[in-house]
Amino acid sequence: MQLTNRILTTVVLAGLRRNAKRATTRALLSSNYNYPVYNPVHNKSTYVNNHSFHSHAKNNKLRIKKVLIVTKLTRYEFEKLRHPNLDASQLEETIKNRGTDHDALLYYHNLHKTVERKVVDSFSQMGVEVKVVNRITINKELLRWTDLIVPVGGDGTFLLAASRATPFFVENSVPIVGFNSDPLRSEGRLMLPKQCTSDVNDAVKRIIKGEFDWMHRSRIRITLLKFNGDTPIPVDLHEFNPAPVEHKELIVSEPTLLDQINGGAYYPGKKTKATKRMLPYLALNEVFIGETLSARVSHLHIRPNTTQKITKTKSSGLCVSTGTGSTSWHTSINRLSTKNVEDLLKILKNGSKLDLKGLNAEAISDIYNQQLVFEPDDPRLCYSIREQICVGVWPNPKGFESRDFAQNLYVKSRCFDASLVIDGTICYPFNDGTKAFLEVLPEDALLTMKIGD
Questions:
Q1: Tens digit of pLDDT for each residue in 152-163?
Q2: Is the pTM of this model over 0.85?
Q3: So what's the pLDDT on residue 7?
Q4: Closest alpha carbon to 434 in 208, 217, 213, 262
Q5: Distances from the Cα of 228 to the Cα of 110, 147, 276, 376, angstroms
Q6: Residue of 244, 259, 319, 309 lying closest to 289 (CA atoms)
Q7: What pLDDT, on a 0 to 100 scale, did the predictor assign at position 23?
Q8: Coil, helix or strand at residue 213
Q9: Which secondary-structure segment (H or E) carries 436?
Q10: Residues of 418-428 as b/e, b for ≥16 C-beta within 10 angstroms?
Q11: Where does residue 379 rank: exposed (0-12), middle (13-18), buried (19+ CB within 10 A)?
């Protein structure tokens, strides 16, 4: 039933996306403001700049003439898109009748729009041409047009912009710098410091003048291998808009490590060549692979670093994180609670003569959790197997660590209805027989800015 509902939801809302650009334009133009429609850890980058833009970026030689603002699609805006034929009072009545707090939706919508207007005005006053898009209206033409991408919202909006600002959509590397539109409720680790929201004009001036430090953030590239010519159709899993998204895959014909792992591009008994598809979206935070229905066990074959043997696992799914994502889902999966440490100390105390009176369980858990975080420009992946089954014959062979670093990762699906999800938003089907190769390449690094406190 859940699978059926998910399919129906995707089909119904796919129609929404076809009319979304016109609806969004009408919604923006009908507002009171006339838009032009359309603290992570930081060390010196370990990357060699391979992009033409990166070579100019070393000395902050950045000429910003055009800025693309990627704005958050607020819940109130989405409600307007869902009900394009209702006026404001009718929409309010509809929202209230189903038990949703209309006043709260409108308040946070206006809060976000206030910051958005400040960002637009600040760049415009500096003589910069500005265009505004959201997750529905963003497209590769505008990404190629701009000199700078500026997400306004929270980390989700930043991830949306980062996933599109890839070599598959943009020929040259375009830097990204974001403003947190709700610093009181949003942590905004990927955004500029919260004080930049309080004084947007000053932050924009510093960006234009080059008063910032460059930062590189590693991203994960994904190549899929399957014995058919079907094009994998990605879906946007945004909570308000599960719908198809723009797709531009790259068919890879030359030999790769993925072929080497599988013993060549051809398999015994197979006359059809395995098609390798390099996905156009790069993961800034993490890649998750697992069954769509969370209660179902995810059966995956995993091989890190291409040199180790393939290990068969059953679990609640696989999370492969970058240094940027290590502060997010990666830490949530692997963190130790104070209660965990207290229980361990009790076991040690009962089973030995050690003096453990001076040990603080909370301090120990804090230190452990902090060590889970690694640098944003670290060229390694860190995989975490969620709730790995470690009884009977699983994993096979025995002793496979549920968390470790790797230079690259090969994954084969033995799942029934699984997905490969990029940064919690772009979803590809990943069912039985599909294989993926995950890697970090220097040229895929995201270029962003850091402004000091």
A1: 999 999 998 998
A2: no
A3: 38
A4: 262
A5: 48, 39, 10, 36
A6: 319
A7: 41
A8: strand
A9: strand 435-440
A10: bbbbbbbbbbb
A11: middle
